[in-house]
Specification:
Elements: H1 2-13, E1 19-29, H2 31-34, H3 37-47, E2 52-58, H4 64-76, E3 82-86, E4 98-104, E5 110-115, E6 128-133, E7 141-146, H5 154-172, E8 177-182, H6 192-196, H7 199-202, E9 206-208, E10 227-232, H8 234-238, E11 240-245, H9 248-251, H10 256-260, E12 268-272, H11 284-315
Parallel strand pairs: 1-2, 7-8
Antiparallel strand pairs: 1-12, 2-4, 3-4, 5-6, 6-7, 8-10, 9-10, 11-12
Helix pairs in contact: 3-4
Active site: 97, 148
Protein name: Deoxyribonuclease
GO cellular component, one term: nucleus
Amino acid sequence: MHSLAAFLLILLAGGAEAFRICAFNTQRLTLAKVVTEQVKDTLVRIVARCDIMVLQEVVDSSNKTISLLLQELKRFDGSRHYSSLYSSRLGRSTYKEKYVYIYRSDKTQVLNSYQYEDEDDLFAREPFVAQFTLPSKILPSLVLVPLHTTPKDVEKELNALYNVFLDVSQRWQSKEVILLGDFNADCTSLPKKRLSQLLLRTEAGFHWVIPDGEDTTVRASTHCTYDRIVLHGEGCQSLLQAAAAFNFPKSFQLTEEEALSISDHYPVEVELNQTARSIQPLSLPTLLLLSLLLSLLPSQLDLVAHGCDVHVAFRT
């Protein structure tokens, strides 16, 4: 009976699936790259894992690349609905990138967005900030601040990212914020001593959920934690379920060469519980299964009772 009771408790405690937020440096994403069958199929499978995906290094000057991805996502799973939100083209030279959010519009909506005003030109690609709804009574909305740093100015840009956080907090009166992206925050770009001195490390309230030392690169010859996710806010941190780099070559059984045709980075992701692990309403199939199991309880109790009688008789 104990095992049956434990199983019933698991069913009762089981809640809605976690809300997954991801960031992925897609390494110079263009239409020519996406029309390649293997690249397109793998990208779709990666993006489809996420409720909100923030793509970096989208260099297509048009929006055809993202339009194609949205079409393929709909074809991949017609029960889901996807939308996109993208920044202007950003960069100090002729080489420019865009930040692109691809999100499940059947689960979340954009409340606000703005391009951070980088008056002192501290960023090569200033953050494109967006506020999304969440399916959570504890945390009904959340702000995302993506950043792709340039390797030669990592420390300067990451310290400036703290100012972006302050700007967001004041503008929208919210401290529930996730900072995420390819920070280049490791190896020669940012040695550990300098990493520990960042404002986002020394100021209270920031939780770096991708551990130092976790490899976010595809090449076997490198082992660097370039890509990061940083949480701020009590509500946000209370809902944290998991965070990790997604090793897509291993999951999709790709060779290193095949994986590098997509990106030299792994996506990073964080999963948030929607209801802080509270008991959830059960679905109809679960209720039917529960009813069946409950109908078996009398026979289970009889067996236990008979077992107790035998045990007592033996002792006397």
